[in-house]
């Protein structure tokens, strides 16, 4: 009598679970990289602290009226006669060079800064990740050409290139989206390289080779097997880059080619306050402090996610 044979499908091709995952499987819990990472993140104080800070900043950015009753976008709230006054009742951060409330402008300035950072991060992750997935999985001419194109973009300094792009399209009335476009055009190659390297590593694994031998299509291999196993480093880099994009927006606004009045951003506030810094330092200090806290929060979040997703760091 011949032994029964069992048909293996591509969905059943997975890598051998680690001891930690086998332990969770025995306990009846789902075992995966993401569940292990979430279990690890919940025990990290740095992750909790950064998540709380980011949650507060998000609420402040999209519902600023919860934090202040003054609308700095209304010119009637500014009094030129009280310009550069120090902190007082009702104006805890004082007033700026135009007599506007610094606290209210700092709260409302969070929206543009965070919106630019988040939008740029999403665009670079999608564009760079998709192109890196295609180049890494296809190889050959596609990989060679895309890699050479990426090297051209890497040769352009981000701030200098973004300065040129925003200055060129400054009169097109594109608002904050010209800043998003400038940063995204010059930043996707980093995500491309990380995704490409992760895909090249994953495509040589046994479960991918077996899936290909069983006749799985190229699209199924890319999105079913390669993408889930190459996504972790992209998420880590995207989280850390988000803070960098917020800082880059502030630099462009400080140079006069980023967010333009009457819109508000922290970089624009710092640029407006620099001329009278020695006379009235608070209008510059407070938006700079909020900018630093925001960038630090996203970098801390990225570091925590990186440590949780890297088994070597556990």
From TrEMBL:
It is a multi-pass membrane protein. Keywords: Cell membrane, Membrane, Transmembrane, Transmembrane helix, Transport. It is found in: Cell membrane. Residues 1-15 have a biased composition (Low complexity). Gene3D superfamilies: MetI-like. Residues 110-302 form the ABC transmembrane type-1 domain. Residues 1-29 are annotated as: Disordered. The keyword Transmembrane applies. The chain crosses the membrane at residues 46-66, 114-137, 149-169, 175-195, 230-259, 284-305. The keyword Membrane applies. PANTHER family: ABC TRANSPORTER PERMEASE PROTEIN (PTHR43386:SF6), OLIGOPEPTIDE TRANSPORT SYSTEM PERMEASE PROTEIN APPC (PTHR43386). Belongs to the binding-protein-dependent transport system permease family. This is ABC transporter permease. It comes from Nonomuraea indica.
